[in-house]
Amino acid sequence: MKNGNLSHWVEKLSRLLLYPGDDEETLLSKQVWFGIAATSLILGSIALVVYWCLHLKLLVFLMAGFCAFFLASMLLFFRIRQQIEWFFLSSEVFKMLFSLVAVILTGGILTSGGFVFLGFAGIYFTLFFPRPEKARFLLLLYLSVLSLEALLQPWLRPLVAFSATENLVLFVLYFMAMLLPLYFFVRIFFRERIRFRQLEAEKLRALDAARSRFFTDISHEFRTPLTIILGMADQIQEAPASIPGEAARLIRRNGKKLLRLVEQLLDLSRLEAGALSAHYVQADVVMELKYLLESFHSLAETRGVSLYFSCEQEELWMDIDPEKLEHLVSNLLDNAIKYTPAGGEVRLAVGSRAAVSQPPPVSGFEAGGASERPAENCLLLTVTDTGIGIPPEQLERIFDRYYRVGEWPTEGAGIGLAMAREYARLLDGYIEVASQPGGGSTFSVFLPVRNNSPRRIHSLSPPSQESGPESTTKAASGKTASGGRPRLLVIEDNPDVVRYLQLFLEGYYDLITASDGEEGIKLALERVPDIIISDIMMPKKDGLEVCRALKGDFRTNHIPIILLTAKTDLDSRISGLECGADAYLAKPFHRRELEVELQKLIGLRETLKHKYSQSLSGPLPEKKPLGLDERFLYELRQCLERHYQEEAFGIKALCSMMSVSRTQLHRKLAALTGQSASHFIRSYRLEKARELLQSTRLAVNEVAYAVGFKDPYYFTRAFTHEFGLSPSEAREA
C-alpha cells in the first residue's frame, strides 16, 4: 500500500513538472532537483526550530531566509517548468554563499556548527548535468569559498557562539544531513539513468527488428507486382497476338503500384530528414477528394468492399497541397479497405469544425500533442470502416513506423499510418482515431482552413482509373470439367495474381478460386481438387494454416499443395515444407516453372493412384502403415477382408465402420485409386474371386456366392469386364 501511495505521488509530481517536449532524463533531473529543494526546505525548517530552541535569534532569521529562498524557487519552478540547469546552479550557488555568510557569523570553519558542509553536496549534484563545465564551475566556486573561509579564519570574531558540545553535535548532524540526501538522490539518479539506457537499448533493438520486418514486408510488396509484370511480359513475348489489352492493363496497374511504393519510401526518407515541405494552392477540397475517391472504387470492388462519400457542403475553397493531401487520404483509404473484410463498408466524409479546444475523446487516441492543434477553423475529414477494429492497447502504436495491427496478414509494410500522421503535421493538422475490436475504426483528420494562396482552376475530368481485374467465377458443379481436366484450386487474395494465373492455366485446368485461407479450406473440403496453389500471406488464415489444415485431414491430405510467396529466406521455405507443402515457389516465379511443378505433382498423384489400385490383390501388411493415405486404405481393406463374403455388406455398412459419410468415402477413394466406392468394393470381391478360382475347384456359382454376389450371371459379366476373361478362362489361365 505504501509503495502504491508513493508511486501515486511521484506520478502526480511528474505531471506537475512535465513541460511539452521533455524527455525522460529531463523529467528525472527535474524530479531530483525538486527532491533536493524540498529536502533543503525541510532540513532548513528543522534547523530553524533547533536554533529557536537554543535562543540563537540571528541564526533563526538566517535559516528563515534559507527556507524562503527554496520555497520561492519551488513555486517559481512550478510556473516555469523549464531551465532546470539554471535552477540547479542557482540553488547550489546560494547554498555556498549562504554557508560563507554563516561561517563568518559563527566565527570561522571550526566553530561554524557544520555550516561549512552546506555547499559540499552541490559539486556532486552537478553530475546530473549533461555538460561538465557546470560541475567545474561549482567545484571552483566551492574551493574558492572554502579557501576564503580559511584565509579569514584568524580575523573572524563570532557574532553567534556555540558551546563546544553544541558545535560538535551540529557538525555531525550537518554532515549527516548533507551526506544522506546526497547518497539517496545520486543513487536514484544513476539507477534510473541506467534503466533509461536499458529501455533505450531495447527500443533500438525493437526498431532494428521492426526495420528488418519492414524490409521483409516491402520485398513482398515488390515481388507480387513483379510476378505479374514479368509473367505477362513473358506471355506477350511468347504469343503477342493471343493476349489482348488486358495484359497491358495488368502491367500498367502493377507498375503504378511499384511506383507508389518507391514514392512512399522516398517520402519517408524525406520526412525523416525534414526535407519535405508543403506547397499550397487555393482549391476546392471537396472536388479534390471526390476525384481521389474515384480511383479507389476499383480496389474496393475487387475486395468486395462498398465505398461511399458524403459532404456537408457542395464546395469548400481553402489552401491545400494537393499532392500531400492525396498521399494523406490515400494512405487512410488504402488502410481502411485492406482491413475491411468482404461485404464491409468504407466511408469518406468531409465537413468543417470550429477551432479545436477540447481534448480528444477518452475512447480515442490523438496522433500528435495538443500543442499541434490548429487554432483556426478546421476541415474535418473522417475515414470510417466496418473492419476488424483496433484493440485499445494497440491504439497508441498504430502510428509508429513499421507497426502492424494483430495477425491480420495483408499487403503493406506498416508505414502508411505513420506517413499519414507526418503528412497531417506537415499540413499543420493532426489525426485522431477511435476504434473498437470487431466494430471498425474511424480516423479523423483536422486541417486548418486558410485562404492565403492563389486560386487553382480545376480540371473538369476526373482522374483516370485502371479497370479492375475481371471477376473470377467459381464452378458450380462438383464434378470434374469435361475432358477430364484436373481440378485446380487457387487460394490467393490478390486479384491481379489470380487473373494472371487464369490467363495461362484455364485452358488446361478446371479452375476454382478462393480469396482467403478460410474460404480455401472450405472449398477444398467441398470440391476435393486434384491440386492446390496457395499464397502464404492472406487474410483470416494464411497459407501455412491452410497447408496444416488440409494435410491433417484425411479427406484432403492426399492433395498436392504448391505454396507461392515472396518470403524467400531458408526458414520460411522450411516452415512451408514442414507444414506439408509439396512445392515452394518464390515470387516472382517463372510461368514455365509453375507449369512443370503442376504437371509433375499431378503425374505423381496418377502414379500413386495406379499403385493403390493395383495393391488390392496383395496381402495386408503385418504392421499398420504410417502414412495417412496408406493407413486409410489399410483400414478399408481390413473391413472388406472381414465382411466381403456377406451379401448384404455394401457402401452403407462400410461408411459406418470407417466413420465417414458416403460422399467423403467416394471422393477419397476416387482421389486415391480413381474408383468409386461401389467399384472399389466390387473390385475387391472380384480379386478374391480370382484367387478362389485359381486355388480351389469350387464351381463358378459357388465362388460367386463365396465372395458376396447373389447373382452368378451378374458375377460372370462383372468378372469378364474387370479382367477381360470369363471365370472359366481365368481358372485355366
Distance between the termini: 97 Å
Q: SS-based structural class?
A: alpha/beta
Uncertain segments of ≥5 residues (pLDDT<50)?
355-372, 458-483
* Order of neighbouring strands in the sheet with most strands: 2-4-6-8-7-5
Task: Summarize model confidence as the mean pLDDT.
Answer: 76
Residue share in helix: 55-70%
Number of contiguous helices: 24
- How much β-strand is present in the residues? 5-15%
Summarize the biggest pleated sheet: 6 strands, mixed
Shape by Cα distribution? elongated
Rg to the nearest angstrom? 41 Å
- Compute the number of structural domains: 4
Topology, number of strands: 13
Topology:
Blueprint: H1 2-17, H2 24-53, H3 57-80, H4 84-105, H5 120-125, H6 133-152, H7 164-238, H8 245-273, E1 281-284, H9 285-294, H10 297-302, E2 306-311, E3 317-320, H11 322-338, E4 345-353, E5 364-367, E6 378-385, H12 416-426, E7 430-435, E8 441-448, E9 487-491, H13 495-505, E10 510-514, H14 517-527, E11 531-535, H15 543-551, E12 561-565, H16 570-578, E13 583-586, H17 591-614, H18 628-643, H19 651-658, H20 662-673, H21 677-695, H22 700-706, H23 712-723, H24 727-732
Parallel strand pairs: 2-4, 9-10, 9-11, 11-12, 12-13
Antiparallel strand pairs: 1-3, 4-6, 5-7, 6-8, 7-8
Helix pairs in contact: 2-3, 2-4, 2-7, 3-4, 4-6, 7-8, 7-13, 9-11, 11-12, 14-15, 22-23
